[in-house]
TrEMBL record:
This is ThuA-like domain-containing protein. Residues 1-23 form the signal peptide. The keyword Signal applies. Keywords: Signal. The keyword Zinc does not apply. It comes from Anseongella ginsenosidimutans. Residues 31-241 form the ThuA-like domain. InterPro entries: Class_I_gatase-like, ThuA-like. It comes from the Bacteria. PANTHER family: GALACTOSE-BINDING DOMAIN-LIKE SUPERFAMILY PROTEIN, SECRETED GLYCOSYL HYDROLASE.
Length: 245
């Protein structure tokens, strides 16, 4: 009898201890990955979703992947610590959904934009400020030399000062270096043909309207989501926006 009581007490103690134990970094964080397209559709979207799910399993956050804009309500967005726009294109949210997303960021949540997130919602000025730039044009897919210009950010710690990567290098309507973002990675325009932005940003971050945002231009091809350096960079960007949420 005493033995049974001891076991019961031990089990209760163990369950209480587990319930109140501090969560590891990233644990129990919920991310919404949104990949709706109303323009060009990238064949890298499935690879991106799988890479993010794998990253979540390894780092202790959960991914919900959807193309359903009905997730963009106050009630549904409240379940997530950050939203990732994965190769979205065109006008993907109506006015009510846009307003809900603005309130979500203003409440202190995070945003990650991947590749064609800058080819999205051109008529929504608030979103343009959140993501940091809008797509203008691009040369053919090419290998280019990337330069890390800020090693202090979670997304760039551990990256080499320079590395080569093949992707689709957007030219932007306005160089994001001149807006209120901190550039993390640039590309050397002498390493590929037809670049137009001179000091050519590839990745950046900023705090905006109460929340945090991180963007990377990398992610045009499925192979981008199997490149360890790209994944390390993206993982750190996600960690940055989650730390503020």
């Amino acid at each position: 009898m005493k033995c049974h009581r001891f076991i019961s007490c031990f089990c209760v103690f163990f369950l209480m201890a587990a319930a109140f134990a501090p969560a590891a970094a990233g644990q129990d964080k919920q991310l919404l990955v949104f990949s709706k397209t109303a323009g060009f559709r990238h064949n890298s979207i499935p690879a991106g979703i799988e890479a993010l799910k794998k990253m979540g399993r390894e780092q202790g956050f959960s991914i919900t992947a959807t193309e359903d804009a009905a997730f963009f309500t106050d009630e549904k967005l409240a379940a997530y610590h950050a939203v990732i726009f994965l190769n979205t294109t065109g006008d993907i949210l109506d006015e009510e959904q846009q307003a809900a997303f603005e309130r979500y960021i203003q409440a202190g949540h995070g945003f990650v934009g991947i590749h064609s997130a800058t080819d999205t919602e051109y008529e929504w000025p608030w979103y343009g400020k959140l993501v940091g730039a809008y797509f203008k044009s691009h040369p053919p897919t090419a290998k280019g030399k990337l330069k890390v210009v800020d090693h202090s950010h979670p997304s760039t710690k551990g990256l080499p000062r320079e590395f080569m990567h093949k992707d689709e290098w957007y030219d932007f309507r306005k160089n994001p270096s001149s807006s209120e973002v901190t550039v993390l990675v640039t590309i050397d325009e002498t390493s590929y043909d037809h670049g137009e932005n001179k000091a050519h940003p590839v990745s950046w971050y900023h705090e905006f309207d109460g929340g945090r945002a991180f963007y990377t231009l990398m992610g045009h091809m499925p192979e981008s989501f199997s490149n360890p350096l790209v994944l390390k960079h993206l993982s750190g960007g996600i960690r940055y926006v989650l730390e503020g949420s």
